[in-house]
Task: structure prediction
Amino acid sequence: MPLQLDDYDVSILKSLLKDGRKSFREISRETGITTPTVKARFNRLVNVGFIKSVSPILDFNMVEKNVVKPELQKGNNRNSKVIDNEDITKNKQQYNNQQKHPQDIKYRIKKGIKIKLDCEFCKGPITGDPHVFRFANYERFFCCTSCMSGYKQKYAGRIESIKRKFEGKE
Result:
């Protein structure tokens, strides 16, 4: 069974779409959801792969024409490369094609959207409720208990190392 977004998830995502630089506390104040819940929900959406990254949106109209970009090579900054207008225009066009209408995303994110999950071990689709393995601040999702135990066996050393590092910090 796919993971289903609820009102909390939707409001957190919409808040991040307005400004991805917000802290969990700022999102909490804006949405009325407690800060630990915001952090937990955000981490869950990252762990299932729905949030791939929080990336800056760059305004290439702010780039000056014929910008000189120093290329540092072994402490030598005598070399420089002039970026011409054609390079800047290509970058603007590529970026604009990728970011056509970011506002449209806000209208497509609604309560009840289902996120498809793939098994961490066999990479197959998860039908029904996923089997969840939690360690440190990670969650891994599996289609069955045999995949979960196979994952634990295969990555036992890494899991223990991550747990030790996590416990040492807290």
